[in-house]
Every structure is written in C-alpha cells, then in structure tokens.
Write a structure and sequence with these properties.
Length: about 400
C-alpha cells in the first residue's frame, strides 16, 4: 500500500541488525519514478521480476582502478549462478503438490472457513462472536496478503493466463487494490531494486509526520480504509478499461462482505456491519505493517549507480523473521521466515521457499555472505528506540568498500 516518501537524508551511518557503523554517503540519485506509471523499459523490468540482474542502465559500471569492480561483479554473478543451480535441483525434484498444491490448499481452506465465520457472528454470546471475528480476520488476511502476494509473482500456477486471473481475483476483488499497479510497484520496483534509494527502499511505508507510537500501534487500524483510497488514486495512471474493471471488482468485493454481514450474520444496522468489516479487515494489520518495515528498513541502502550485484543486494538488504504459526498461515513463509529466499527466487511459492531455505542459508554462510535473521520482538524494540533515524529521516547510503 503506497504511503509517503521519507525526508531528505539527514543522518550518516547505516544500521544492520540494530548495529550502527559509520559509512560515508555517496550522494543522491535524483527523484524516484512516479508510482504507478508505465515501466520505463518493459524487457528490463520483466527480467527483474524473474529475479535476474538488471543491465547497466542504472550504472553498474566499472568505478575502481584496473577493473577490480568488474572482476568482483563477475565473481558475484558466478555465485548467484551456482546458488541458482542448487535451488533448481530442489525445484525439479519437487512434486506439483510441493510447488503449488500446499499453498493452494491453504487458500482453499480459508474459503471453506468463510461460512463458519459469518454464522458465528449471528450468536449473541461473546465467545462464538469473537470466534467469528477471529475466523473472518484470519481468512481475510490469508486471501489478501498471502493470496495477493503469490498471485503478484505468478507463484500459484505455471500458466501466465491463469496467473493474471488469480491476480485480479486476489488483489482487486479480495484486497480492494489495483492488480496492475500493485504488481508493478511490488514486483518490478521493490524486487527489482531492493533497498536502492529512491526506487525499492521501502520509503512508501513511511509516514514521517506520525510519532512512533501512533505509527506502530494506531495507524495500522486505518489500513482497510487507506488501501482502496490509494487504489482509486492510482487508477488515474491506467487505461480506462482497466480502471473500470478494477472499480467493479473492488465494489463487488466490498459489497459482498457488507451484504453477507447483513443477511447471513444478521447485523441490524449498516453502521454495525461496517464496523465489523473494519474490525475483521484490520485484525492483523499491525503485523502486516510491522513485517513490511522490519525486513528491509534499518538494513544497508544503496545508490542506484553504486549498488552491489544481486546476490549481495539481497543478502545484505533482506531479513528473515522466525517462524510463527499464525503469520505463516496468513502471510506465507516468503514474507516471514523465508524472505531472503523469496527475494533471491521471487517466483517460488511459499512452500518452496521453505523447502529451499536450508540450501540457501547454508550456501550464503559457506560463502561468508550475510544471512540476516532477527526476532519480531527485537525488531519492534529497535524501531521504537530508533524511530526518528529509521522512519523519519531518509536512509543513508552504504559505502560499498569491503562488500565486493
């Protein structure tokens, strides 16, 4: 969900897992591209969506004497190729059930739980009613977060045509957002330029005018309201046919939820039904916001013309959180405990990210590459303590000396 960009750079030093190390700033990179505009180079952006290293358009040039940087880049490309071959062996030896079936079953189970959730809300007793709220809240986030995320990466099916259908269903109908702009901002920008200042640096998750407690604990409650409003604003950048389709899907999804609360759950007034919609749709909004900032912000950031190659970019700028039964089910492994694996191989499903995790972690550690891991509680303390530095000021740029 696009929010606001951060302020200009005011601080020096870079935090990695809570530790600060002074690093000289290398200079800015200009204004970022407008969110939701057409990709400047379709072929290049498609390559990044598949996890391949983009070409030299952003300035991966030889900047060191004697071509040392070029040699280092070739070495890193060889490392990424070697890791890809290891992962490909695991993928080829996996069944369809492992590649897609497990995650499709989780989404199907969530759909089957919908009737029980709406019927529980008919009860006048507290425990069944709260069970209904919990059920609908978990189902909503499973469909809108896990489903939308997998669909945006076409990880639910081998077919691109069906992948587009699922993207429209999960992103527009279930999540009340726009599929084209959501996919472009996430897959093409965030994944293509992870932790690159002005592009994929997660600055869209910042609201620097809010204090730390409001942002971390109160603002997430507004996610169900802000999401469709942001989507409506982004529709200005798409063709009218796409905008019309998105509006119809968004309206249908929201109205179906409202209608079921009135006619199945038995709510007596429109306001009580709308309040219940807000409650269920914001049930896991706090961890949703937290996860999106914990796993990138506070880690090394790079200038577009001074970024490392892909394997270093992802190993330095991405962090894994521990496994959590509720979040693993609702958000998926690729957003929680396998986020490093997901950024290295974004087209794999949640279950496959979990399966390749031992291979990736062992390889990165064997090659002395970073493999960032931290606990949810530790990251929460870090962001509360260093909120001004991490969330108000623009992130500093990491010097590449010692990285390549």
């Amino acid at each position: 969900m696009p929010l606001e960009d951060g302020d200009p750079v005011r601080q020096r030093g870079q935090r990695v897992n809570g530790e600060v190390s002074g690093t000289p700033r290398l200079g800015g990179t200009g204004d970022p591209p407008l969110r939701g505009t057409a990709a400047p180079d379709g072929s290049r952006m498609e390559a990044m969506a598949e996890g391949r290293e983009p070409g030299p358009a952003l300035g991966d040039r030889d900047v060191s004497p004697g071509g040392a940087l070029q040699q280092a880049g070739q070495h890193e490309e060889a490392l990424m190729t070697e890791l890809s071959e290891l992962v490909q062996k695991v993928v080829k030896s996996s069944s369809w059930w492992e590649r897609h079936g497990v995650d499709i079953s989780i989404l199907a189970c969530s759909f089957l739980l919908l009737p029980a959730g709406f019927l529980c809300l008919r009860s006048a007793q507290a425990i069944p009613f709260l069970a209904g709220v919990l059920t609908l809240g978990v189902v909503h986030h499973t469909l809108t977060v896990k489903g939308s995320h997998l669909a945006s990466h076409n990880a639910l099916t081998e077919s691109k045509s069906w992948g587009k259908v699922w993207a429209i269903f999960f992103i527009e109908l279930c999540s009340a957002f726009t599929a084209e702009q959501g996919t472009y901002n996430h897959v093409k920008i965030h994944h293509g330029y992870t932790n690159v200042i002005g592009l994929g640096d997660s600055s869209t998750w910042k609201l620097p005018f809010l204090n730390r407690y409001v942002y971390m604990f109160i603002a997430p409650l507004a996610v169900p309201i802000i999401t469709p409003l942001v989507a409506l604003d982004l529709l200005r950048n798409v063709e009218w046919k796409v905008a019309l389709r998105t509006l119809c899907c968004m309206f249908l999804g929201l109205y179906c939820h409202y209608w079921l609360l009135l006619h199945v759950s038995g709510f007596q007034s429109p306001w009580s039904a709308l309040l219940c919609m807000l409650l269920t749709r914001s049930l896991l909004a706090h961890p949703y916001i937290h996860v999106n900032i914990f796993q990138h912000i506070g880690l090394p950031m790079f200038a577009a013309n001074r970024k490392p190659k892909r394997i270093h970019l992802m190993s330095l700028g991405v962090l894994n959180l521990p496994r959590n039964a509720l979040l693993d089910w609702s958000f998926g492994h690729s957003l929680i405990s396998c986020h490093v694996e997901h950024h290295l191989f974004p087209s794999l499903s949640d279950n496959m990210c979990l399966k390749i995790k031992p291979v990736v972690s062992q390889y990165l550690k064997q090659k002395k590459l970073p493999y960032n891991e931290d606990t949810y509680a530790s990251r929460l303390r870090l962001f509360l303590q260093r909120y001004e530095e991490l969330m108000v000021h623009a992130p500093p740029i990491t010097e590449l000396v010692g990285i390549q």
